[in-house]
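This section describes the prediction task in plain terms. A model, or a person checking by hand, is given the sequence of a single protein chain and must write out its three-dimensional structure as a string of C-alpha coordinates. No templates, partner chains or ligands are provided. The sample shown here is typical of the held-out split.
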Amino acid sequence: MEYELLFFTYASNENKVPGIKKELEEILTNHGGKLSGDFTDIGKRKFAYPIKRETHGYYSFVRLTLEDTAKLPEINKRIGLNNQVTRHLIVKASEVGKPVSASGTPPQEIMAEEKKIEEIPQEKASESKPKANMDDLDEKLNELLDETPS
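The expected answer:
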Protein backbone atom coordinates (compact mmCIF):
# COMPACT_ATOMS: atom_id res chain seq x y z
CA MET A 1 0.00 0.00 0.00
CA GLU A 2 1.23 3.50 -0.77
CA TYR A 3 1.58 6.08 1.99
CA GLU A 4 2.81 9.63 2.36
CA LEU A 5 4.93 10.75 5.30
CA LEU A 6 4.92 14.43 6.19
CA PHE A 7 7.17 15.73 8.93
CA PHE A 8 8.44 19.01 10.21
CA THR A 9 11.18 20.17 12.47
CA TYR A 10 11.84 23.55 14.04
CA ALA A 11 13.21 26.16 11.66
CA SER A 12 16.29 26.38 13.89
CA ASN A 13 17.09 22.78 12.80
CA GLU A 14 16.92 23.66 9.10
CA ASN A 15 20.60 22.88 8.59
CA LYS A 16 20.06 19.39 10.11
CA VAL A 17 17.27 18.41 7.68
CA PRO A 18 19.47 16.25 5.39
CA GLY A 19 20.56 14.19 8.42
CA ILE A 20 16.97 13.89 9.63
CA LYS A 21 15.92 12.66 6.17
CA LYS A 22 18.63 9.99 6.26
CA GLU A 23 17.48 8.83 9.69
CA LEU A 24 13.85 8.65 8.54
CA GLU A 25 14.88 6.79 5.39
CA GLU A 26 16.72 4.22 7.57
CA ILE A 27 13.67 3.80 9.82
CA LEU A 28 11.39 3.30 6.82
CA THR A 29 13.66 0.86 4.97
CA ASN A 30 14.45 -1.15 8.13
CA HIS A 31 10.72 -1.75 8.59
CA GLY A 32 10.05 -2.84 5.02
CA GLY A 33 9.19 0.51 3.48
CA LYS A 34 10.36 1.44 0.01
CA LEU A 35 10.65 5.13 -0.88
CA SER A 36 8.89 6.05 -4.15
CA GLY A 37 11.25 8.98 -4.70
CA ASP A 38 13.31 11.58 -2.90
CA PHE A 39 12.02 13.74 -0.08
CA THR A 40 10.22 16.85 -1.31
CA ASP A 41 10.91 19.97 0.70
CA ILE A 42 7.99 22.29 1.30
CA GLY A 43 10.26 24.70 3.10
CA LYS A 44 9.98 27.04 6.03
CA ARG A 45 6.41 27.81 7.13
CA LYS A 46 4.82 29.63 10.05
CA PHE A 47 2.95 27.50 12.58
CA ALA A 48 -0.70 28.19 13.31
CA TYR A 49 0.28 28.45 16.98
CA PRO A 50 3.63 28.40 18.82
CA ILE A 51 5.05 24.99 19.69
CA LYS A 52 7.48 25.14 22.60
CA ARG A 53 7.98 28.85 21.90
CA GLU A 54 8.92 28.18 18.25
CA THR A 55 6.84 29.89 15.57
CA HIS A 56 8.29 28.45 12.34
CA GLY A 57 9.06 24.99 11.07
CA TYR A 58 10.73 23.32 8.12
CA TYR A 59 8.41 20.88 6.31
CA SER A 60 9.21 17.93 4.06
CA PHE A 61 7.39 14.86 2.75
CA VAL A 62 7.98 11.60 0.89
CA ARG A 63 5.85 8.87 -0.66
CA LEU A 64 6.55 5.29 0.26
CA THR A 65 5.16 1.82 -0.26
CA LEU A 66 4.70 -0.55 2.63
CA GLU A 67 3.59 -4.12 2.02
CA ASP A 68 3.19 -5.09 5.69
CA THR A 69 0.81 -2.50 7.14
CA ALA A 70 1.18 -4.11 10.58
CA LYS A 71 4.57 -2.38 10.82
CA LEU A 72 2.99 1.08 10.54
CA PRO A 73 2.54 1.56 14.31
CA GLU A 74 6.20 0.65 14.88
CA ILE A 75 7.29 3.13 12.21
CA ASN A 76 5.15 5.84 13.84
CA LYS A 77 6.70 5.01 17.20
CA ARG A 78 10.29 5.15 15.88
CA ILE A 79 9.72 8.48 14.11
CA GLY A 80 8.04 9.87 17.23
CA LEU A 81 11.10 8.95 19.30
CA ASN A 82 13.34 11.02 17.03
CA ASN A 83 13.93 14.24 18.98
CA GLN A 84 14.65 16.28 15.87
CA VAL A 85 11.24 15.55 14.28
CA THR A 86 8.75 17.93 15.88
CA ARG A 87 5.62 16.32 14.42
CA HIS A 88 4.88 13.81 11.69
CA LEU A 89 1.90 12.29 9.92
CA ILE A 90 1.57 9.17 7.79
CA VAL A 91 -1.53 8.90 5.59
CA LYS A 92 -2.64 6.66 2.75
CA ALA A 93 -1.61 8.23 -0.55
CA SER A 94 -5.16 7.74 -1.85
CA GLU A 95 -6.42 10.06 0.92
CA VAL A 96 -4.03 12.91 0.11
CA GLY A 97 -5.83 15.93 -1.31
CA LYS A 98 -9.32 14.91 -0.18
CA PRO A 99 -11.23 17.41 1.97
CA VAL A 100 -11.15 16.49 5.65
CA SER A 101 -14.23 16.52 7.88
CA ALA A 102 -14.13 15.65 11.57
CA SER A 103 -17.68 14.26 11.51
CA GLY A 104 -17.09 12.02 8.51
CA THR A 105 -19.82 13.84 6.58
CA PRO A 106 -18.78 15.01 3.12
CA PRO A 107 -18.10 18.78 3.06
CA GLN A 108 -20.79 19.37 0.38
CA GLU A 109 -23.48 18.03 2.73
CA ILE A 110 -22.20 20.17 5.61
CA MET A 111 -22.32 23.28 3.43
CA ALA A 112 -25.89 22.46 2.35
CA GLU A 113 -26.96 22.05 6.00
CA GLU A 114 -25.31 25.36 6.96
CA LYS A 115 -27.12 27.08 4.13
CA LYS A 116 -30.47 25.72 5.41
CA ILE A 117 -29.66 26.90 8.92
CA GLU A 118 -28.85 30.39 7.64
CA GLU A 119 -32.16 30.57 5.76
CA ILE A 120 -34.35 29.63 8.75
CA PRO A 121 -33.71 32.73 10.93
CA GLN A 122 -34.51 35.02 8.01
CA GLU A 123 -37.94 33.42 7.60
CA LYS A 124 -38.66 33.67 11.33
CA ALA A 125 -37.59 37.31 11.44
CA SER A 126 -40.35 38.33 9.04
CA GLU A 127 -42.97 36.40 11.08
CA SER A 128 -41.92 37.82 14.47
CA LYS A 129 -43.74 40.56 16.39
CA PRO A 130 -42.92 44.18 15.63
CA LYS A 131 -40.20 45.65 17.80
CA ALA A 132 -41.17 47.73 20.81
CA ASN A 133 -40.11 51.35 20.86
CA MET A 134 -37.84 52.79 23.54
CA ASP A 135 -40.62 54.66 25.38
CA ASP A 136 -42.58 51.44 25.94
CA LEU A 137 -39.46 49.69 27.21
CA ASP A 138 -38.68 52.55 29.61
CA GLU A 139 -42.23 52.42 31.00
CA LYS A 140 -42.06 48.67 31.59
CA LEU A 141 -38.66 48.98 33.22
CA ASN A 142 -39.93 51.70 35.58
CA GLU A 143 -42.95 49.58 36.48
CA LEU A 144 -40.74 46.61 37.31
CA LEU A 145 -38.38 48.71 39.38
CA ASP A 146 -41.27 50.23 41.31
CA GLU A 147 -42.78 46.81 42.04
CA THR A 148 -39.62 45.20 43.43
CA PRO A 149 -39.23 45.65 47.21
CA SER A 150 -36.03 47.26 48.41
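For orientation: Helices lie at 17-30, 72-81, 107-127, 134-147.
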